Amino acid sequence: MTMSTPYPLKIRAVWYDKESNTVCWVNTLKLPFKEEVYCSNNPERVAKAIIEMEIRGAPAIGVAAALAVGSYAVEVSSLPLGDFAMSVGKAIDTLWRTRPTAHNLFYALNRLRMILEENVGKNTSPSEIAKMILDEALKVMWEDIESNIRIGEYGAELIPDGATILTHCNAGALATSAFGTAEAVMRVAWYKGKKIKVIATETRPMLQGARLTVWELWKEGIPVTLITDNMAGYVIRRGLVDAVIVGADRVTREGYVVNKIGTYMIALAAKRNNIPFYVAAPTSTIDLSSSINDVVIEERNPREVKYVLDKLITVEEVNALNYAFDITDPDLVTAIITEKGIVYPPFEENLKKIMKDRG
Ligand SMILES: CSC[C@@H](O)[C@@H](O)C(=O)COP(=O)(O)O
């Protein structure tokens, strides 16, 4: 399955290699210093890559997990049906437990689990089921790329020529399969000739902004300025920012946006200073079945806070908190840019409308 795209896919974060029947990914932990690629169809290895953040960003996690299950299903398709079903079910469970917050992971794995269960019930042969699962995983990947491009096209309309956009974390190609969400908006605006500039926050503790967003925009030729996270409020207050655009890991039915830790403070500053705060997210990130009270905010190893690029920066024994995500209230969000269109408040009502044909 291939797809021609109206814009170049200059960076691929996650893809399928047919020849070796593996999922391949760029190890984002090594960027921007080294472009290291790994390929595997071992669910445990891919799960480790997600947990340790070689692969990160909500859509990229979903696509990688789907392709891991798809390629693994093909790998074990010579097993008898019962053993095949058990092995693939176990692979889905392993990937399910990797990171708890991004909805895309559960969305993608649920699609594959449904195919497995339906067809095991019908006594379909393992090789046919494996093919269906792999095809579905590839569909998840292409849908992701397609959504990113649509998000870019819808979002670019909101961006005035010459605008300075502030973004947080990395919602670029490296957080998806190929094109990005918040960065898709910037890319398309840029390709359409809008002379935008971007301010990227460094995004402690894992530095996705400094390491990944800056690298991606640099490669694209889009002017980018790096700031520390704690500069965002002042930079906005000084009038240096025309709009904020971020991605999301999960959008709840009420329109709460769960995204990288630090997003909430930026949204507050944007509201206070009357600049728009946009969220770019595919519908695979929107979970109408979750209310804000159900959301699990991942807490990661405190070591990530105490060390920067493997260098200890504090007293080794100190306690550190490491919430990976925060929650932005719906009233701080100007609009959510999806592949189906731009959603404005009231979010609870309008998200429902846009999600109607998503099922
Ligand atoms: C298009 S990616 C949107 C989000 O996944 C992104 O902003 C983010 O918070 C990523 O967090 P990470 O911990 O790097 O996986």
TrEMBL record:
Organism, scientific name: Desulfurococcus amylolyticus DSM 16532
Residue positions binding substrate: R56, G57, A58, R99, Q208, N259, K260
Class of the enzyme per the UniProt entry, highest EC level: isomerase
Catalytic activity: 5-(methylsulfanyl)-alpha-D-ribose 1-phosphate = 5-(methylsulfanyl)-D-ribulose 1-phosphate
Site (Transition state stabilizer): C169
NCBIfam families: eIF-2B_rel, PRK05720.1, salvage_mtnA
Protein name, entry field: Putative methylthioribose-1-phosphate isomerase
Pfam families on file: IF-2B
